[in-house]
Design brief:
With about 550 residues, this protein is of the alpha/beta class. The chain folds into two domains: about 280 residues, Rossmann fold (3-Layer(aba) Sandwich); about 260 residues, 3-Layer(aba) Sandwich (Rossmann fold). Helix content is about 35%, strand content about 20%. A nine-stranded mixed β-sheet has the order 13-12-14-15-23-22-21-18-19, sandwiched between helices. A seven-stranded parallel β-sheet has the order 5-2-6-1-7-10-11, sandwiched between helices. Helix 4 crosses helix 5. The longest helix has 20 residues. Bound molecules: glutamine. The site of glutamine has 10 residues, from strand 19.
Length: about 550
Amino acid sequence: MDRVPIYLFVTGGVISSLGKGLTASSIGLLLERQGYPVAMIKLDPYLNIDPGTMSPYQHGEVYVTTDGVETDLDLGHYHRFTNALLTKNSSATAGQIYEAVLRKERHGEYLGSTVQVIPHVTDEIKRRLRACAAQLKGFGFVIVEIGGTVGDIESLPFLEAIRQFRCEQTNPCLNLHVTYVPYIKSAGETKTKPTQHSVQALRQIGIFPDLILCRTETTVGEEERAKIQLFCNVNENSVFDLPDVDLIYDVPLVLHRQNVEAAILGRVGLKEKPVDLSDWEQATRVTKPHPPEVRIGVVGKYIKHQDAYKSLYEALYHASCKVGCKLKIEKLDPETVDHDGFPKAFRGLDGYLIPGGFGTRGWEGKIEAAKYCREDKVPYFGICLGMQILAVEFARDVLGLKKANSSEMDLDSPDPVISLLSEQKQVKDLGGTMRLGVYPCHLAKPSKAYHAYGLEDVGERHRHRYEFNNLYKADFEKNGARISGTSPDGSLCEIMEIADHPWMVGVQFHPEFASKPIAPHPLFTAFIQASLNHSKARGQKA
Ligand code: GLN
């Protein structure tokens, strides 16, 4: 008989931002290395159907799955650390759960019952937990991260659902509690009381942690460990450290050194085997001595929020490890750029990246960045909105269409070189209605894009409503812009490059979502390489 999957529930205590997502991902990686496939799901207690309509200031990046679901940025960590298949079954919000329950109620599916949190909402949550397990190929683990902090009103139905799930005994279940253990400087002491309280709160609702992972600035001493073990009612070898690390990719190594995987496997009757993580270690850092530095300017309006461009920063980092250079990211605010051109203070970096975005704020400043890169032949990588900016700048300055614009920014522009996708014209609702998920893209040969991928056909993830307006295609191509990637029928421009330029490439999709440390995205690698070449060439000239 097939063995049933094992569920690992990851909760968080005391405060938010403890890195539950990174912890869950790291454990996923360690279990995969032990030979067990993992499936992963994030449960988010907020009432939005998905984070797609939330401001990046509220929520950070919106991560898009290949099947076109807008999800929490933790799924980006799951992708970068594990091989888990991430789909619509890999995230669920309270909004989605309630929507499903209410839809069933309207259909009369509850046959006259009073519809309640228990059992109807909790049943729907449990249905989602089982749907996630269906993504597993073979016997393995389902890692369930519960957003929020234990004690929040919103997370109660989720916690109740996992309590019931364990009691039903259909699947072996383990609870991992990630908690905060503060060090009080003035007293010179590490305090376990907040952890005791958060575990008490869990126990009150019938959840008993099996493992406790302590976020600390340094490490938890033996005395504190024994205290946590005693007061939180866990076995020996159940309390682990999650110290601050400089590099997020070191979290699996830190856990591996404490042999967390043995503790997990041992509790479900499995034996751990020795594994070698040196490939991971190597892929996540530059190993050669004295690597050159590459300085990349990211020109985006959400630079102040450290998670708003999470996948993008990580993709740059993966590429820099592969190329073998130290990465320095300069975050540049396009709203501070006026019409006097790209500011001096922003110039002189080795490459510039314009991320995706929406709305007029900072738009003209980003166009100045593109103009500077095109004229001074500095590497430029435009992602989604960044490709649209490349096109508008080119139309204005090279084609002389002074009022060229995207119709997102100026509906009355006489030259809308970027216009609404025809499929978007009837769309009224904002949530989940963009062109989303993976679409095929055919590359022209030779081109910088083809050179980077080494493939003629690729598939990449999208999240946009506007597209390049093909009425201008001939004019663009005649004057030195190259459409080097299109939808297979040729109707949509997916990649645009400037021919007479070392590396100026814009893509209508989001390659950053696909990059992993062990498989950096080829376009990011090509961009970093071009930026390094630019830096070296400039050094020689000086
Ligand atoms: N706002 C642009 C569009 O909707 C770009 C979107 C993006 O950068 N993700 O087409």
